[in-house]
Design brief:
This protein has 116 residues and is mainly beta. The protein has one domain: Jelly Rolls (Sandwich), CATH 2.60.120.1140. The strands form three sheets. A five-stranded mixed beta sheet has the order 3-4-9-6-7, with no helix packed on it. Strand 3, helix 1 and strand 4 form a beta-alpha-beta unit.
């Protein structure tokens, strides 16, 4: 899939987005991977308002968005073995390796898009 773009700030958050569609891919997420390259993100639709980092081998940056890809919550440097709750309006989450997100890239209320 294409890039993750913050249309509110006109910036690219991730150059490549992988979509975890289907129950099995959503359930697995990034489990089993030892890292995720800088500039890449995993989009987990229908994750609603929580994710876990149990059994993960690296820390994550997370962007929780609603159905319209409006940012509800941003969590950075989430270590393994955590349960993370976001805003109740969250519908899906973008996961990337820790250190990718800064306030100048994304913050609550920003509108995102996935495209080329």
């Amino acid at each position: 899939m294409g890039a993750l773009i913050n249309t509110s700030k006109n910036t690219i958050i991730a150059s490549t987005v992988e979509v975890a569609s289907g129950f099995q891919k959503r359930n697995k997420g990034l489990l089993g991977r030892t890292s995720l390259e800088n500039g890449k993100a995993l989009w987990i639709p229908n994750s609603y308002f929580s994710v876990h980092t149990f059994f993960m081998k690296f820390s994550l940056d997370l962007i929780f968005v609603d159905r319209n890809l409006v940012v509800q919550t941003v969590k950075t440097h989430v270590p393994p073995w955590r349960l993370v709750f976001a805003h109740w309006r969250s519908f899906s989450v973008f996961e990337m390796a820790a250190g990718q997100l800064t306030p100048d890239k994304v913050e609550k209320g920003d509108i995102l898009s996935v495209g080329h």
